[in-house]
Amino acid sequence: MKELSELKPLFESLTIKPTFDYVHIILSLFIFGENPAGIGRYRLKDELQIGSGTAKSLVKKLKDVSEFIVVPDAGERKRKGHVLTEKGYKFFAKVKKKIPLLEKADLTFLKDIIIEPENVNPYFCLVKNATKKIKDGIEQRDAAIKVNGYGATCLVYNGKDIVFPSKFVNNGSEEQKKINQKTLKYFTSKIEKAKVLFEKDDVIIIGLGENPQISRLAALNAALTLF
Q1: Comma-separated ranges of CATH 1.10.10.10 domains in the chain
Q2: What is the pLDDT of residues 19-69, one digit of tens each?
């Protein structure tokens, strides 16, 4: 995604290189977007699973360098933290065109898809028109593990069914590649509820981690490999 190049200035430093990554920037935009009343850096730290110093650096860069966030006018009785600026919303809109959906998944519908480790908290995201970017899935799995996730599972919509990418299934029949109808209905209902158009070559990525925050990072970092 060429738009990610707009974020490069956030990593520039004359002293110490920032310890946050692209996934933390993108996820922070999702979080600010979900909290239009404002969110403080201490909560952002917990949501992004980063340290206080990293959170402080990220907030400062988003405010002073990219001008994506701002603290509301001091006229309000209580400061509720930072909110997205018009510039921030515009960039976030570009991201949402590629990843229009990122939310917690119900493990009940995923038992036939993933190997269920203890205390898993799955998140899933929808990546638009990304099938051709998937090779063997190792890049997505590694991206999930890089942010301390257990891994990531990729699924492809072929216009009728949700299937495992062909390269993931050795000598399997078409039926073996399909996910079950119950899970298909679960994902399609989630996508329809979000008022997103589900189209051929869209990809669903399921991220896994020991808590919801890490699972969300895992899903999103895996998705960024498809940009």
Answers
A1: 2-96
A2: 999 999 999 999 999 999 999 999 999 999 999 999 999 999 999 999 999
Kind and range of the H or E run holding 225: none
Task: Quote the CA–CA distance of 96 and 83 in Å, as a whole number.
Answer: 17
Rounded to whole angstroms, the Cα distance separating 215 from 159 reads 27
- What b/e readout covers 199-226, taking b as 16+ CB neighbours within 10 angstroms? eeebbbbbbbbeeebbbbbbbbbbbbbb
DSSP secondary structure, 3-43, as one string = GGGGGGGGG--SSSPPS--HHHHHHHHHHHHH-TT-B-HHH
SS3 197: coil
Token pair 């799955």: residue = 122
Contact by Cβ (8 Å): 125, 116: no
Return the CATH number of the domain spanning residue range 99-224.
3.30.1360.30
- Classify 205 as helix, strand or coil: strand
Query: Please, where in the chain does CATH 3.30.1360.30 lie?
Result: 99-224
At the top level of CATH, the class of 2-96 is: mainly alpha
